[in-house]
Amino acid sequence: MPKTYDQAYFDKWYRSAGHAVRSPAELTRKVAMVLGQAEFYLGRPVRNVLDIGCGEAPWRAVLRRLRPGIEYRGLEASEYAVMRYGRSRNIGYARFGQLAELRFDTRFDLIVCTDVLHYLKPAEIRAGLTGIGEMAEGLAFLEVYTREDDPGGDREGFFNRSASWYRSQFDEVGLIPVGSQCYASPRLARSVASLERL
What distance in Å separates the CA atoms of residue 41 and residue 18, rounded to the nearest whole number? Predict the structure, then answer.
């Protein structure tokens, strides 16, 4: 039976004291780190963000606090999240694999995809990554956990893949690893020094 990403799911994994694995302070540090990394390679402030598998869009509030005026667009496959927050938080409905065809009128300075890929099948990952490779102007933050990790949290439907498998998929679409699960877009290849690449 497929998982249901309803309000009960988000309450449990994002708000429950007994299950939530990330604190608001940790999220703020993570967003600040990713923004700093993206802006270093872009050479300017991040102007727009695409957040894939955004859930209830917790990144949005932090991004807007740290960079007032930033343009945020979320994509989410949870009908609950889109129905409840779609209009107020600019979240549209899309599955990860649909990024193979889905395009917008701009590329994105920062693309975020956290805690999503390790629940997806290989064909959907490959399809969606083609879109990320094409739509990323600056940096992609692809937070993925592998069989070598112990991230805690929701393990239902978790695929125990190796880190090397994910690296090969990211490399296929030209994403350049620059540390802390951040990947420079193919457009920034000339801006990434040899020893900055992992």
Answer: 38
Length of the chain: 198
Q: What is the pTM of this model?
A: 0.90
Residue 182 and residue 84: Cα distance in Å, rounded? 30
Q: Domains in the chain and their CATH numbers?
A: 21-196 (3.40.50.150)
Minimal CA–CA distance to 162: which of 125, 113, 118?
118
The full DSSP string for 115-154 is S-GGGS-HHHHHHHHHHHHHHEEEEEEEE---TT----S-
Structure-token match 């979240």, residue found: 91
Q: Is residue 97 classed exposed, middle or buried when 0-12, 13-18 and 19+ CB atoms within 10 A define those classes?
A: buried
Tokens at 78, concatenated: 């949870």
Residues 109-140 pLDDT 10s: 999 999 999 989 999 999 999 999 999 999 99
Amino acid, res. 187:
R
User: Closest Cα partner for 63 from 10, 131, 110?
Assistant: 110
* pLDDT (tens digit per residue) in 23-42: 889 999 999 999 999 999 99
108-114 and 71-76 strand pairing: unpaired
Tokens at 164, concatenated: 């090397």
